[in-house]
Amino acid sequence: MILELRNIEKSFGDKQVLTGVSFKAEGGKAFGLLGRNGAGKTTSIRILMNVFPANGGEVLMDGKPIDYDKVGFGYLPEERGLYPKKIIIDQLIYFAELKGMSRRKAIESIDYWLERLGMMEYRNKRLDTLSKGNQQKIQLVTALAHDPEIVILDEPFSGLDPVNAMLLKDVVKEQIAKSKIVLFSSHQMSYIEEFCDSIAILNNGRVALHGDLHDIKRDYPRDRLVVRTEKPDAIKADFGAACTVGENGALMIQLRSADEKKAVMSRLAEKYDIDEVKVFEPSLNDIFVEYAGDAPKED
Amino acid sequence: MKQFEKILKFELKYYFKNKVFVGITIFFMVAIAVVMFLPRALEMFKSDDTADTTEEVSVMLVKADDSAQADMVKEIFAASFEDYDVQITDADTEAIKDEIVSGEAECAFVMTGPTSYVYYVNNLSMYDMNTQIADEVLGQIYQMNAMINGGMTQQQAAEVMNIKIESEIENLGKNQMENFLYTYIMIFALYVVILLYGQMVATNVATEKSSRAMELLITSAKPTAMMFGKVIASCLAGFIQIIAIFGSALIFYNLNKSYWESNMMVGSAFNIPPELLFYMLLFFVLGFLIYAFMFGAVGSTASKLEDINTSVMPLTMLFVVAFVVVMTSMSSGNVDTIVMKVCSFIPFTSPMSMFTRIAMSTVPWYEIVISIVILIASTIGIGVLAARIYRVGVLLYGTPPKIGAIIKAVMAADRKNN
Predict the structure, then answer these.
(1) Which residues pair with A23 in a beta bridge?
(2) Cβ-contact A73, A150 below 8 angstroms
(3) ipTM of the assembly?
(4) Which chain B residue lies closest to A97 (C-alpha atoms)?
(5) pLDDT on residue A264
(6) What CA–CA distance (Å, rounded) separates A36 from A204?
(7) Contact at 8 Å (CB) between A199 and A31?
(8) Does the pLDDT at position B200 exceed 90?
(9) Rounded CA gap, B398 and B136, in Å?
């Protein structure tokens, strides 16, 4: 199962929001859609879910134009919100039925998810009696109850305590294991890094970077070494200006080229008392800042 | 279609679980029951009581300098004012005034000549007809005396005075008197229901938007299904409410029919010809729908509940103007003025004005057909347009957009769809 956006164009009035946006997400893998505020993430998601049509381009499922009657979407919007004054089970059934489930099946599935997320005791309560984190778990049920092929989670971890975040991680892993397409949108890079195999970074409505996260990292020139040591002074003196101190206290040595990597590594290991030496790979955070860094244009 | 059903059910449930909605309905039903059973209850009360309590009768004093005149006036007044105990008094004016102020007597006629008097009363009520009656009676006496003095016998004079004119009415069109009340009730009910439910639809949409439930709804259901589901649910709820209220009125009226028969007004309100009832339902439903769609569309453009009141203002104004036009021409008795004729083809005013014309005047059949066709077509058109505005409007946050901007956005969205 491959979901593909191809050359999507979208403008609101005179304002061009998306320009030639293309990316692919595969079933059984998580996909991270990144970008700063206003980069076009939500608009891309809305086009993907057919909330409004694109001005140009197409949404494909396994190479063919997607059939919205057949493909199920589960969506956890960034702007959370259900009916605050209504009974939780009533609105969960309503949303599941709107997605085409029969009442009986809906109740069965909702009860499973309420149980799974430890929310069974709130089943017959009003939504606004719940805490923010618990409301978010209820919202998650609406995204998953109808067992959709494509799960879109917009900032799923914001507002969750560590225990609930762990629970959500398990659920997400489970969805990926069921070979669903899981699409993440988040600013919390650590979560994206943990789950996502491939990413797309949007910047000003264009795809600035797209591909397999592992490959992206490998593509960076491997000409920097990270050294952890208790006695940094001797190394600093040895390498001079090429050696800087990184944020976490580790030393960063800039090589003249990637070719001398092996030689320098063995020299370090032989001459100095070091705990660890490895080739520097940028974190997703670094990549994000590099590609999405320049300020989005205001119109 | 399936989504539409689900939405309809969900929204309908919202109305029937709403305590205010249910409360108001029950309140009206009980109020109507009380009114309808009132004459029966009063009758029972009366028949029990008349035996042992004598009704207190207000005292009316009569004074004339000439005792013959005093006797005559007393006699005639006693016959004309059945509710009063008419008494002759010799007291002077001050004493009479005191008696009235202290409440011993209610009023007094002090004759100052055969055709002139002073009327004393403590608080002149709006409905005090005593002087009119006195004027008439005294005038008749004067005329009769004049005739007798002129040579007629008393019998001849009485015959002249009591001449009866025989007449017959052959009405070729509608009887406005009979139709007035239920036309009035229908127009008024339409007015109240549209404003009330229109506001409810608008608030309902805006609430979904402000609580961000919309974010999820819009990805779960088609905007047309949502718009039509909501509006038709509110229409059904309104209809059920009205049927509950008017239906119970009809049942209670029929249970107490014999007590109400003497009351022409009430009787006429429940005596609607089936043909008119059909038009009433038709115009009611269409008028309701067309306004509910507009209210829904307006609601979708407001991002906060506080914005609703200002956003719906133009709509409310339009409706109030239509209402005033119809009400004015109804009370003037001429419902076929140019304004009314024009209004009966404009879809926003025709539910009220065309119905009024059908009920209170004679309208050619083709005018009715044209008006209904225009109304149905516009209702569908407005419904579809409302769904489109809704689709664009629900995702706009911030200050409510201008009408022009919305129409532009809707048209732009259309171009892309085609």
Answers:
(1) A5
(2) yes
(3) 0.75
(4) B6
(5) 86
(6) 9
(7) yes
(8) no
(9) 72
Cα distances from A133 to residues A112, A140, A209, B176, in angstroms, run: 19, 11, 32, 65
Short-list B224, B396, B229, CA closest to B300 = B396
Would the CB atoms of A82 and B213 count as touching at under 8 Å? yes
Among partner residues B217, B219, B416, which is closest to A73 by beta-carbon distance? B219
Chain A residue numbers touching B221 (CB-CB < 8 A): 98
Which residues of chain B make contact with A139, given a CB cutoff of 8 A? 216
Q: How high is the pLDDT of residue A94?
A: 92
What's the pLDDT band for B286 if we cut at 50, 70, 90?
very high
CB B220 within 8 A of CB B229: no
| In B256-312, alpha helices (H) | 257-260, 264-269, 274-301, 307-311
Nearest to residue B294, comparing CAs of B387, B409, B404?
B387
How does DSSP assign A134-189, residue by residue?
HHHHHHHHHHHTT--SEEEEESTTTT--HHHHHHHHHHHHHHHHTT-EEEEE-S-H
**Pair of tokens at residue B44:** 């029972």
**B416: pLDDT strictly greater than 70:** no
Name the token pair of A112.
């499973």
pLDDT digits (tens, 9 = 90+) for A152-200: 999 888 888 899 999 999 999 999 999 999 998 988 888 888 888 899 9
Cα-atom radius of gyration of chain B, to the nearest Å? Answer: 31
Q: A78: helix, coil or strand?
A: coil
Q: Indicate the pTM of the whole model.
A: 0.74
CA distance B194 to chain A (A): 25
DSSP B207-244: HHHHTTHHHHHHHHS-HHHHHHHHHHHHHHHHHHHHHH
Q: What is the pLDDT of residues B233-266, one digit of tens each?
A: 988 988 888 888 888 888 888 888 777 777 766 7
- Give the CA angle between residues B21, B27, B30 to the nearest 5°: 140
CB burial of B285-303 (b: ≥16 within 10 Å; e: otherwise) equals ebbbbbbbbbbbbbbbbbb
